[in-house]
Amino acid sequence: MEKENKSYLIGIDDAGRGPVLGSMFLAGVLIEKDKQEELRTLGAKDSKLLSPATRRSLARKIKRSYKFHIEKSTPKEIDDCDNLNNLEAIKSAMIINRLASGLKGEIEAIVDCPSVNIEAWSAYLSNLIIDHNIKITAEHKADFNHPVVSAASIIAKETREEEVAQIRKELDVKFGSGYPSDPQTIEFIKHNYKNEKYKDIIRHSWDTVKQLEKKSKQKQFS
User: Which of 1, 138, 150, 200 could form a disulfide with 44 if both were Cys (CB 3.0 to 4.6 A apart)?
Assistant: First the structure.
């Protein structure tokens, strides 16, 4: 049994929210509250500030040393959802409920908030948490401000990169980073968004694809 006087932190962050290709991942890391400095000393910081090699190494160390959980949202799941912020709240709640299960003591979940309306998003998330005693702290740039969220950011980003590498290998295809700002990605989408072979890796609800579909229809009726 866990001791009553322990205090815990759960840090949550996402990776792959913006790409037109591939899944979105949310990761959560659970630590005892007094382990924050330990994570900072390990080198945990916002994953965007780390080189790929450093990120990979840190992800392995964090996974070995702390309890974590990852939730994946596939392109189809993203296409089918009405609101991506709500989907992130649902996935965040699943992580919190999983990591907090069986714990005794004070628990605070710090989440990198995807919404401009932090208060409304926090309320939506809170309603999905099984243990209503868990404190929810949602804020922007939480991955920069809190080592436990940085640790989650590192795991989420590395998981996203692993999936992208696996897709490239399995389908033997080059599509760049998967982001709409990448010319190589745009070229790939332009030639393949109707291809059944790639339908499971493309987010068809993204404006990148919708604009191509719109142009295709205009050509048909012109």
Answer: 150
